[in-house]
Amino acid sequence: MTEHFRISDEDLMINFQSGDNLAFDELVRRYKQPLANFIFRFLASYDDSLDIVQDTFIRVYQNKDNYKTVAKFSTWLYTIASNLAKTHLRRSRRFKLFSSNVFKTNDEEYEVEYASHDPSPEENTDKNLRSALIQKSLNKLPDHYREVVILRDIMELSYEEISKITKLPEGTVKSRINRGRLILKSSLDAFSIEL
Amino acid sequence: MCSMNNKEVNNFENPDDGLKDLIEELKNLPEMKLPPDFDGRLKTRIALDNEKKQKKITPYTSYSKYLVYSGSFIIVLCLAVLSVIIFRSGKEPVIKNAAIDSTYYHDKKVIIIPPPENLIEGSSKKTIEKITGQKDNKSDKKQIQEYFETEKSPETVSPEKFATPLSGPKTMMMSKEIKKDSSKKGDSSKKYPARKR
Predict the structure, then answer these.
(1) Burial of A188 by CB count in 10 Å (0-12 exposed, 13-18 middle, 19+ buried)?
(2) What are the residue ranges of helices labelled H in chain A?
(3) Which of A50, A57, A158 sits opposite B4 (nearest CB)?
(4) Is-contact A50 A36, C-beta < 8 A?
């Protein structure tokens, strides 16, 4: 395992393509948390995010031979995850279900999922409340702004990588990030005032 | 996970203080907590997927449809052959020579051969050539009918010609007698209506 730790993601994929399943396990260990964070912030649903993360790794396992070392492994991985998340979002919007975690403000109901399935979500600390507000504001963002804001500000990916993941020019990525931040800030301020 | 270049930080990353705070808050959002059995569940799902792919679904080849098709083809073929046989047997014999008529005399089939053209006496406008020689669009039956209709009297037929039966012992008889007797037989009169007198 320590040997795998020093190897780059691309080399791990080459080993995995050769038949080394331990290389795949190492890749899962490295990327499961960041991937989960990204998808959770994008979908705002704990259970759905878990499914999408697993689906992403299954896709990587099944299509390992399709990966070319020309591109970064993380770019390839996030592209798969982003596409799956968008597909899921489109489908789920047709059959919207109400979650049990509801955050009410001024007669408007918002679905807010906590980042963990702890048995005591009723502990409404300020930190949790702030996180919930930010998540709520993120949910209100249009999909194309939300994706790039999460990839840039939460996942801390470069503009070049985001451009490859979203298949958009870098200029478009930058302008969307800027615009997304502004919308996020304004909605966050609006929620803060309401509270 | 931090992969930002310094260039990018200097060129574009000059957000306002308000946005800086927002970006900080976004970075500090709590991580999603994964269940402890996440890896195990993932491996189970991968194993199940592999099992599904390895299961070979044998294609079900139905030969019964070929039997049905061939059977129905045979039946249709038999029906076609039978219909051809039936219609052929019921078909009236083709009289190539339109002038040859036949009748029954004492249960023996007798063929009447009309005389040649120059010996016919009567008001028949039709020549033997038309009846006997050239091919006409009219059916043979109709030609015979017309021939007998145009004949005014049996005397026009040459008495020198005798009818001879097709089968059985050969008996020679006069055509006049044949004409008389032919009127008695019901079947033949249907086929060949009586001559107008």
Answers:
(1) buried
(2) 2-6, 9-18, 21-43, 46-62, 73-94, 126-140, 143-149, 159-166, 170-194
(3) A158
(4) yes
Query: Looking at residue A47, what is its pLDDT?
Result: 92
Nearest chain B residue to A41 by CA distance is B32
Mutation for A interface: B5, B29, B37, most A CBs within 10 A: B29
Query: What is the distance between the alpha carbons of residues B41 and B150, in angstroms, rounded to a whole number?
Result: 107
Q: Burial-class residue A5 by CB neighbours within 10 Å (0-12, 13-18, 19+).
A: exposed
Q: State residue A23's pLDDT score.
A: 94
**Distance from chain centroid for Cα B142:** 30
Return the H-helix or E-strand segment holding B88.
helix B64-90
Nearest chain A residue to B31, by CA: A37
ipTM above 0.90, yes or no: no
How far does B5 lie from chain A, in Å, by closest CA?
8
Rounded average pLDDT over A67-89: 93
Cβ-nearest to B34 among A36, A135, A182: A36
pLDDT tens, A152-193? 999 999 999 999 999 999 999 999 999 999 999 999 888 777
Amino acid found at A76: W
Cβ A28–B42 below 8 Å, yes or no? yes
Q: Is A54 within 8 Å of B42 when comparing Cβ atoms?
A: yes
B94: Cβ–Cβ under 8 A, 6 or more apart, which residues?
A: B140
Q: Which residues, including other chains, have CB under 8 Å from residue B117's CB and lie 6 or more apart?
A: B127, B128, B129
Residues of chain A with Cβ-Cβ distance to B20 below 8 Å are: none
Tens digits of per-residue pLDDT, A32-74?
A: 999 999 999 999 999 999 999 999 999 999 999 999 988 899 9
Instruction: Please tell me the predicted confidence (pLDDT) of residue A119.
Output: 45
Instruction: Let me know: does B96 contact B138? Beta carbons within 8 Å.
Output: no
**Please, what is the average pLDDT of chain B?**
66
Task: Return the closest-CA partner of residue A65 out of A23, A31, A19.
Answer: A19
What gap in Å lies between CA A67 and CA A18, rounded to an integer? 12
Q: Which among B19, B29, B49 has the least Cβ separation from residue A131?
A: B29
The model's pLDDT over A131-156, given as tens digits with 9 standing for 90+, comes to: 888 998 999 999 999 999 999 999 99
